[in-house]
Amino acid sequence: MEMNQQQDHKFPVELAYVPFFNLALQQNAVPVINELKLKNHTGHDLKNIECIFSAKPALILPKTVSVESLKNGEELPIHDLGIELDYELLVSLSEALKGKLELEIRSDAEVLYSNSYDVEAFAADQWLGLEVMPELLAAFVTPNLDVVAQLQTVVAAELKKATGSPNIQGYQADKNRVYEICSAVYRAIHSWGIHYSNPPSSFGSAGQRIRLADAIYQYRLGTCLDTSILFASVLEQCGLHPVIMLQAGHAYIGCHLSERYFPDIPMDDLQCPFRTVGNAFAASRAFLLIDFDDFPFHLHLPVKFH
């Protein structure tokens, strides 16, 4: 969230806004502007105030927010402005697009404030990174893609081969069965023969491209983050609760072996998983972590943190 503040004026304005947009932001109805704060230092009361939002190119739908009056010396914070991103433009992007968010504030015929703010819109397959709502990474987990559904049949076949039963029960069975499902998912994805692609030096920065399951299947190529998201998609299709873990330059996929969730997302406290499931990882077999340092993949049980 960016905070732009202009104080050299009789009508100072503060705007807290998201400088990066993508389709995931729009589809999850995340507010583009968190707060608009108006301060009246003009020396007189103001009436019929209009806050007019637009963008060049048209990344947002034009919006006018009206304020009936603002007395001299008063300060007014405005939330829930209802600024909407342009879906048609965002869904059409194949590359990043820089633009300007524009704001003009008028009181009757008088222009009180005019300014533009740098923004950037990304294509649908570009993540906003760790600085802008990292939890939106979950939007790239796509369990309903056809290629993921097709992979389910391979998972079932691997389960039958290993255990005699092809049933994918999610958490209806015990932890041992959940682990067997995770192992079958591992073998099914491994059968694709995916080649490891080194993540970009800008790992975790806004604009990082992510290959979804269909692109990984087509090109047999993926970074650690791509394959973590692929695993998460398949595990979710299996009725399990995946967890994506990130560190500098690397990603991991985890899965709860019992039906639980971590209390908050995102988390930046490495100790939280330990506090959540207790200290007896090896005894309780509470969590599974898969690492992608090298291919073929590595399964770690009990959990292993790097």
Descriptive terms for the model:
306 residues, disordered C terminus, four-stranded antiparallel β-sheet, five-stranded mixed β-sheet, alpha+beta
The helix/strand order is EEEHEEEEHEEEHHEEHEHEEHHEE
- Fraction of residues in helices? 10-25%
Largest sheet, spatial ordering of strands: 3-9-8-5-6
Give the terminus-to-terminus CA distance.
Answer: 30 Å
Structural class: alpha+beta
Mean pLDDT across all residues, rounded?
86
Largest sheet: 5 strands, mixed
The amount of beta strand, in percent, is 25-35%
Shape call: elongated
Spans where pLDDT lies below 50 across 5 or more residues:
278-286, 292-306
Radius of gyration, in angstroms, nearest whole number:
24 Å
Total strands: 17
Compute the number of helices.
Answer: 8
Brief sketch in words of this structure:
This protein is of the alpha+beta class and 306 residues long.
